[in-house]
Amino acid sequence: MPEGPQRHEAPGSGRVLAMSTIAFTMMFAVWLMFGILGKPIQAEFGLTDVELSWISAVAVLNGSMWRLPAGMLADRIGGKKVMLFLLVSGAVASFAVSFANSYPMLLVLAFLVGFVGNSFSVGVAWNNAWFTDRRKGFALGLFGAGNVGASVTKFIGPAIIAATAGATYGLGVVGGWRLIPVIYGVLLLAIAVTLFFVTPHADRMPGATKSVAAMLEPLKDIRVWRFSLYYVVVFGAYVALSATLPAYYVDNFGVDLTTAGLLTATFIFPASLLRPVGGWFSDRWGARKAMYGTFFVMLAASGVLMMPNGHIVLYQPDGGRSEVMHYAINLWLFVALVFVIGCAMGIGKAAVYKHIPTYFPENVGSVGGLVGMLGGLGGFFLPPMFAYSKAFTGMANSTFAILFAVTAVSLLWMHLTIHRMLHTQSPHLGDDVEVPATMADARASGTREEIHA
């Protein structure tokens, strides 16, 4: 391959990155808008916490289950066409949410709106086609920072809901929470028009000549499924917490919805904006180191957050009793620890996707699509798991016990895999570490065979 293409990005790659990131940011906001809209929806329709959790869950489901075919399609026909389709279809579905009049109708429309969540695998495949290996980690990290869209509704939602409640507009649109989906629908259409004219008309299609079987071949590799579990931890849990934290703050700390949205943003921003940093770190020092740091930090923070409020009661021989080791996590410690988890997730999300073009450079669309799909499905299963665990245990912080357990399993699998790989490739290194000190002098005068003899 000529040296030039390896050292310089193709003309138009910057426009692809900019517009795909803007589009993904807005579609991510639409995908997770029920996190803030949930409380007013719950009040209007009289829903339980479990019923409410399913509204966000079905949106996340539809935004995850098509990521594999969407990524493959972007490789085959070009990311621009697929991204435009998602923007337009998402605008129509978002506008329709404003007219929901029953819980079943809300579930159906939330499912349809969720389709825009598949924009992630489309954007990954699209940007991968336009950037060289030298810049892919940073480019994919910057694109992935569009996750910050999850905070858009947290900022503008409560203010718009409060300011427009009871108002009526044209075309049957009313104020309050129902106005938010209409605004999003208009913005999605505007971005679609801009993207069409700004990005290069001649798109790149690295999978245009590949058969579907060839694109699916890498999915037999166990590494793809391991990377998917990592992504459940750093992305699926991110989606789940983004959707459930507003209600968590309201229910457990007694703050209003506006404050809950702002506090949730302190988790969303680092989990999104640090993604380019994670890509840069992975380019420079390796994705494996980034993943170790991510998992250890998440275990430490979630380990504290899952501890139940309470104290230990000591019974004395004389019948008396005393209470010791009182523990209750306050609001600001909670916010700080969730912020730390967000920082770790931001680094980890980029690190996972740095693995993909490294191990599967010719199949980023299909592999990235599967990893994104399974990671996103984690965001589908986790909110109901949080709700059911709370109902079963009576403790809201059981949410973080689940997060701790999933993170621990991922770290253990990664570490055992790396340990086994190093042992297979360099078995002699074990002797270099474990040989008794009395044999140290023998190394200087004898060969390895003589020492073992």
UniProtKB/TrEMBL annotation:
Q: Which organism is it from?
A: Propioniciclava sinopodophylli
Question: Does the keyword Transport belong to this entry?
Answer: no
Tell me the protein's name: NarK/NasA family nitrate transporter
Where does it primarily localize? membrane
Q: Which residues cross the membrane?
A: 16-37, 82-100, 106-126, 138-167, 179-198, 229-248, 260-278, 290-307, 327-352, 364-382, 394-414
Major facilitator superfamily (MFS) profile domain sequence ranges: 15-422
Which membrane topology term applies here?
Multi-pass membrane protein
The terms describing its cellular component in GO are: plasma membrane
Q: Write out the GO MF terms.
A: nitrate transmembrane transporter activity
Tell me, what's a Pfam family for it? Answer: MFS_1
Q: Which residues form a coiled coil?
A: none
- Is Cytoplasm among the key words of this record? no
GO BP: any one term: nitrate assimilation
Q: Which family does it belong to?
A: Belongs to the major facilitator superfamily. Nitrate/nitrite porter (TC 2.A.1.8) family.
Q: What InterPro entries does the annotation carry?
A: MFS, MFS_dom, MFS_trans_sf, NO3_transporter
Keywords linked to the UniProt accession: Membrane, Nitrate assimilation, Transmembrane, Transmembrane helix
